[in-house]
Amino acid sequence: MAAVLGISAYYHDAAAALVVDGRVVAAMQEERFSRIKNDAALPIRAARACLRVAGLGAGDLDAIVYYENPFAKLERVLTWLLRNFPRSYGQFPRAIAEQLGSKLWVLDGIAEGVGAPRAKVRPSDHHECHAASAFFTSPFEKAAVLTVDGVGECATTTIWKGEGSALTALGHIDFPHSLGLLYGALTAYLGFEVNEGEYKVMGLAAFGAPRFRDEFAKLLTLRDDGSFELGLPYFAYDTGSNVGFSAKMERLLGPRRPVGRAWDLDSDASDRRFADIAATLQAVTEDALLALAREARRRTGAEALCLAGGVALNAVANARLLREAGFARVSVHPAAGDAGGALGAAILGSIALGDPRPSALTSAALGEEIDVAAADSLARALGLDPVRISDPAATAAEHLLRGEIVAVCQGRFEWGPRALGQRSLLALPGDPKVRERLNRVIKRREPFRPFAPAVPADRAAEWFEEAPSDLTAFMTTVCPVRPSARARLGAVTHVDGSARVQTVTGSSAPFLDGVLAAVGKGADLPVVLNTSLNGPGEPIVAAATDALGFFVGYPVDAMLVGDLLLVRDRKRESES
Amino acid sequence: MAAARTAEGAGIAYVLATLTAPIAFATRARTARQLFAFALAEHESMLELRAAAARSPSPERCALYLRHALDEERHATAFARHSAEIRRALGLPAYGQPRTECESLYERLGERSFLAFVHRGEHRGRAQFDAYVAFFARRGEAKLRALFTALIEDERRHESYTRALLVEHAGGEREARRVLATMALWEAFRRWRRVGSGLARLVYGASMFVLYLALFPFALALRVLRPERSIRGGWES
Fold first, then answer.
1. Does residue B109 sit at the A interface (CB-CB below 8 Å)?
2. Is A171 within 8 Å of B95 when comparing Cβ atoms?
3. Got the DSSP string for A362-399?
4. How far apart are CA A73 and CA A79, in angstroms?
5. Do A177 and B233 touch (CB under 8 A)?
6. How much is the pLDDT for A434?
7. Nearest-CA residue of chain B relative to A220?
8. Longest C-alpha distance within chain A, in Å?
9. Distance (Å, whole) CA A167 – CA A505
10. How many CA atoms lie within 13 A of B78 on its CB side?
């Protein structure tokens, strides 16, 4: 019986996770505390919060596992720099500063930050941690496990066989050949921020046609065995470029899209071309993932597939894997990116100390509980007028049925990039004007980005094809909206007729389940639009101060923090 | 009104801002860069105040820090938007959203010194903005003048509440002045370390250049002794 803390840090979206006696007790991203989106810093605040949730101190930990091996990573970086001499000159000073400045000493940094003996801190393998996060939290006893991301120590893609409490490595593809880096480079080419704008590319793809297949054949070669090779001259991993693509890619696809230019897909021919490039990238990525999944099935003979790594957050590709890869079931970890590596590391450490693998994850509410009393005091100090109510779900539904946008903070915040009903903005799903209002005054996102619906799992099939599935609980897939339902679900139906559905049960998100039931009674359609509770460029709300800050800063109609109701007093606001 | 503001804002920050404004805003491209630098500063300040709001034991002070943080966020957005507009007019891509680190000053300094730090920053900011209002008025740039004018009122309010809180927290005017003086020394030392860090970066760059050249034989040896395994992609086992 052991308490093991897992840590991921220093690349993207740092996180900490705690497994006690084989049970996943807490898992949180550092960004929720630092309020820096995708914060990569050592997640000491998240680690302390995990310990607080469990009621443990640093001295109670049996092990701390870091999600990759810093020495193996240093070797890969140095080898790459030397192999690309002298082109790597621009990259050399920065890479050495990063590696020798902090990354190499990360195990000492963790010991010092958490307050545990250095001897208890040990490294693990990046992709093994991803694989562990996916398989050991899945409902499967046996599965093929596929991890696909930018790069770990050296590997970018791995296949594993998961059986019981064991993971067996079956093969890997190494840097620089990486689907994650391909997607990242094209994300930058399309004018979005790498490691942040990939969702936008996925949404944009639905507006285009994949007519650049010939050009992309030069960027990515797929082989019959599921492996692939990047056309390296089109990329710029060896020059220290911030964007990841070379001038040759711009000669192939045309000039890149300027950062920050407003999108006009209706009348701007160049924007339509960029949408076609996004569509081709998406199609090529799906083809590559499909080939990898089929190879994983051939090698393992398994009926189920588990996915992790940043590329596994591509919900559109996941839907295609479920349909076409030949697996009966597919599961994606809710924090499939680097954050999830922290949980994988903790689980590996726990199993190594003799504990059983955790039970399947049914809820992503693994963060800290919202402090309703603190929210109450702060609301009063802000001059707001909070009211305690007896039935928060019914009250939320009442406001929603009036066509209002309602912010909710209930219980523990979510693990991973999706708001699943604990820190969400809710609205009715029917009116596209709601989507437009949400985008214009709160989210300020590109107009092509879709919003997601939440629906009770047992009634999802009435409105969505291919739902429910193992993927829909954590919003890691898209489902076709039934043609008969599209008119009633206008605010959550994407231009291609799909929706990134979240199926809800009483155990996965009890509050949201209650809201759906109450909305269903009032509107005969138990579906709500559910989007994350954050402003543009901000991490999702975590604590009471974040929640109240959001309410004061953005014009939502009402907010529910536990049983505390705040209603926007527009008359008073206009007078002041 | 402008004259009164100028008189109020007189001080080293005002004079420096007046002297450097023609350089900082010499061209449209520089103006865009300078405005984005302000966006970064406001964003960083927002993060510090958010952290303070999350840690302050008093709901009243938490509320003040939170409202201040929201103002800083609004300022950051305004600066970034103006910067992007100028860059786009020049045919250049925008710098994107401001992203900065947080020094966790509330945690490191404690509430009293944190208040002194914020107060001094707001005082300096207001003096600078006063100077820029006058500068853009002279240059006839109504839009940028309006931008800074709109922010000055916020800066004045922030300056005032942090001073009042500091006096309250310090238990009197005399102790508040002492904390402010200590903070001035701390900031001077911080500036000195930043200059040192800039120099260290130059030295580091030069030494890395020498080291990189010295690695040439190893680069050759690597190509001979360890040929690229995965240059063609494909599965490894």
1. no
2. no
3. -----SPBP-HHHHHHHHHHTT---EE-S-HHHHHHHH
4. 10
5. yes
6. 84
7. B233
8. 69
9. 30
10. 16
Give the single-character DSSP code of A71: H
A102–chain B Cβ distance below 8 A for any pair: no
B69 vs A: CB within 8 A: yes
Question: Chain B within 8 Å of A76 (Cβ-Cβ)?
Answer: no
Could you tell me the pLDDT band of residue B224, with boundaries at 50, 70 and 90?
confident
Helix residue spans in A484-562 (DSSP H): 510-523, 544-553
Contact at CB, B235 and A225, closer than 8 angstroms: yes
Average pLDDT over residues A163-172: 97
- Determine what percent of chain A falls in helix, strand and coil, rounding each to the nearest 5: 40, 20, 40
Residue A468 CB burial class (10 angstroms; 0-12, 13-18, ≥19): buried
In one-letter notation, the amino acid at residue A236 is A
Nearest C-alpha in A relative to B203: A93
pLDDT in tens, A453-465: 999 999 999 999 9
Q: Which of A174, A127, A73 is nearest to B230 (CA)?
A: A174
End-to-end CA distance of chain B: 76
Could you tell me if A193 lies within 8 Å of chain B, comparing CB atoms? yes
Nearest to B190 by CA among B120, B99, B129, B122: B120
Tokens of A514: 């209650």
Q: Is there a contact between A170 and B102 if contact means CB atoms under 8 Å apart?
A: no
The pair of structure tokens assigned to A473 is 């609980």
- Contact by Cβ (8 Å): B233, A176: no
**A12 assigned to active site:** yes
Question: What's the 3-state SS for B137-164?
Answer: HHHCCHHHHHHHHHHHHHHHHHHHHHHH
**In chain A, residues 276-315 whose CB comes closer than 8 Å to chain B:** none
Q: Does residue B5 carry a pLDDT above 60?
A: no
Strand ranges (E), A309-359: 329-332
Under an 8 A CB cutoff, do B59 and A229 touch?
Answer: no
Residue pair A358/A27 in contact by the 8 Å Cβ criterion: no
Whole-angstrom distance between the N-terminal and C-terminal Cα of chain A?
A: 59
CB proximity A196 to B under 8 Å: no
Q: Do A36 and B208 touch (CB under 8 A)?
A: no
Domains of chain A, start order: 3-132+337-352 (3.30.420.40), 179-332 (3.30.420.40), 372-575 (3.90.870.20)
Q: Three-class SS of residue B193?
A: helix
Where do the domains of chain B lie, and which CATH numbers do they carry? 2-171 (1.20.1260)
What residue type is A575 in one-letter code?
E
Ramachandran angles phi, psi of A329, nearest 5°:
-140, 150
Beta pairing class for A155-163 and A304-308: unpaired
A261: which chain B residues are within 8 Å (Cβ-Cβ)?
Answer: 88, 93-94
Across the interface, which of B99, B204, B232 has its CB nearest the CB of A229?
A: B232
Rounded distance between C-alpha atoms, residue A19 and residue A114, angstroms: 16
Which residues fall within 8 angstroms of residue A278, CB to CB, at 6 or more apart?
A: A186, A190, A201, A202, A204, A205, A207, A208
Q: How is residue A435 written in tokens?
A: 């989507």
Best A31, A33, A39, A85 member to test B by mutation, with max B CBs in 10 Å, is A85
DSSP notation for A109-174: HHHHHHT--GGGEEE--HHHHHHHHHHTTSS-SEEEEEEE-S-SSSEEEEEEEEETTEEEEEEEEE
Give the separation between CA A285 and CA A290, rounded to whole angstroms.
8
Confidence category of residue A241, pLDDT binned at 50, 70, 90: low
Give the Å distances, CA to CA, from B6 to A89, B119, B159. 50, 19, 16
Tokens of residue B192, six digits: 């000195």
What are the tens digits of pLDDT across the range B117-168?
A: 999 999 999 999 999 999 999 999 999 999 999 999 999 999 999 999 999 9
